[in-house]
Amino acid sequence: MEGKPGFQSYGPLLSGDFLPVPDFTDNLLRLGEMGMTMMEDLLENTCKNMIKTILFCLENATKGTIYRVGPIPKLQAVRVTSGIRRKGTDEIEWGLPAVSDYNPPGKSWEQYRDRPDHVLEAMGWCVEKQKSWTAENPFEDVRSVGKQLRGEIEDFYHMEPVLVRKSDLYGGGQGIVEYPRDWAGNPIWQDSEYVVSAVIKIHFMPYSIRRDDRSTRIIKELSRSLGTELLSLQLREKLFRSQQEFTRRQLKSGELLAHELRNTLTKFGFVFAAVNAEIGVLREEWEELLSKSFPHLKSKASLLGRLSELIRSQMPNLRNGDECLPVCRLLLREQSELASLSLLPEQSEQWIYHKIKPNWERLLKCSHAWHQDRDEILTLLDQLQEALHMGKNRQLIDKLDHLPRDLIEKWARVAYIYFTPDKLNFLEDILQILDHPELPVCHKQQIKKVIKSLKALVELVPEVEERANRIILSLRYENGVDSDICIDYSRICRI
Fold first, then answer.
1. CATH 3.10.490.10 fits 25-245, yes or no
2. Strands (E), 86-180
3. Where do the structural domains in the chain lie, given as residue ranges?
């Protein structure tokens, strides 16, 4: 909006907006959720394949369950899935039992580990000792939870811990691992080469299983295969989390860079203010020329001077503490500042409308000291608004004949431009005026040098802004920034 400071836009970065991009924080959260869901699906499918393999290999096996154990040191034991062989067939029904302590979220190590005067669980034995447990005779099984709690006899089953080498899982960082502790406070697994990542539980037909028989040996061998697959899944999960963290940091870096670039580019706004200040000098010189050429016309400065003179003439008659005194001082300041500023006519009108006239109305209402001057004051305010447009008065411009016509026309036109990025071509007109040998402006060569320097900066701002946007988008969408989109700051330094 021409004539209204503060309305110009310097492009998406300078106005505080970037090119339209998705909400990366939400996308990152969704990516994390999708990744974790994918990992859970892979884990479940891996466990199903293992249960299916065991049930197919062992005809006397009726049901299989796999529990995930971890992470260290909490060792939460959570049932991943269960598969039951349909009687007389090789078909398997999948799902979790309706009620179980090990259904998600499972049981913590403190809940199922061995401790005095507490129910002993086969799960605690397998995890702490890293050894299997076989219930070949449930009637005599000391770790039959159902028998201990409810007097019920449990199934014939075998539980096998799935072991993973510490060196494979932690590499050289084994020394910093915090191990879980037994009921006496002693760390477990400290002297072992392995950690327990899962437990396999297979149920058998009555009296069809013995400790260390062929079935239990097969389960032990297959548990090693499951351990390898679980290690692969854990490493993939670590890699995914690392990638997710890298992406998060990358996006954070992009946002920080965007913030810095936005601040830097916002500072380029001074270029447009500086150009308008130089245009203001040309405007002052133009209006001074008109005042000298038409001395009978009252200028903005003379009218404001007369209004201030009228205020001072009556101020001595006011008593100390009079409510009109603050209004007098305020009006004197506002009128003095307006007289000193080189504003566009539209801007000066807003100043008069919001600051000068309302305070004169207050002053005339609160005191009769200016009653005799009231008509003159109102006339001066009307004349002041007319004087603001003196420099654009076509009749006055046409009467000027002591300067070349082309100089007068261009000078009258550019003097009332409010410079914004879309008016770059007007800078050439200003430079042409400053080059004119008959331009009666002091220090015009200095003004010309300033305009030339500002012109170079104004032309550079869109390029810097466009490249900054590309850098930010590249950081958000890719892993790096292409070498051909680096901002040439040397051009800025040469200006």
1. no
2. 92-94, 133-135, 156-165
3. 25-245, 269-484
